[in-house]
Amino acid sequence: MSTLRVLTVCTGNICRSPAAAVMLREAVRTGGLSEQVEVESAGTSWDAEGLPMDERTMFALERAGYRQPFEHTARTVHLSELTTWDLVLVMTSQHLQSLRRMMEQIPEGQASPEVLLWRQFDPETSIDARDEDLDVPDPWYDEQEAFDETVLGMQRAVPSIMAHVRRLLREGRDRTR
Prior knowledge:
There is one protein chain. It contains 6 helices and 4 strands; from the N terminus they run βαβααβαβαα. It is α/β, with parallel strands linked by helices. A 4-stranded parallel sheet has the order 2-1-3-4, with helices on both faces. The mean pLDDT is 95.
């Protein structure tokens, strides 16, 4: 049985992407897919590399019903590992552009991930929304309430993401270009 590898990506990898990874790991666990799906997170910037998850994010996750421990160390996504992921879920259109530029450097014939915006899976998102309208807001400069709202907003997408993950598992997606 093959493993599907899912990476969530934001800027610093201390707020949105680790929260997304916590949510997806819980959905994978409760969905009985722990042996088939691996979930990790990373950032596009090295500024926070080595730091733990932001405390406000951990508190928002707890308030949303997720249980500690939230073991996490911020890291940056690199081209050398990008080819090892099947699905990359990014938080903003800027992250999407960054990863697409990075993927242009992947040699022809090598595996490349499917890269999608997290909010593409939000049932409250308009079908004709532009990429830039699908950004998950960055709560970093705000108070706890913004973290709570971000986590609760992100949760809406989890069921649809899991349906997509199940579809990818069924299809055994070929990642070569």
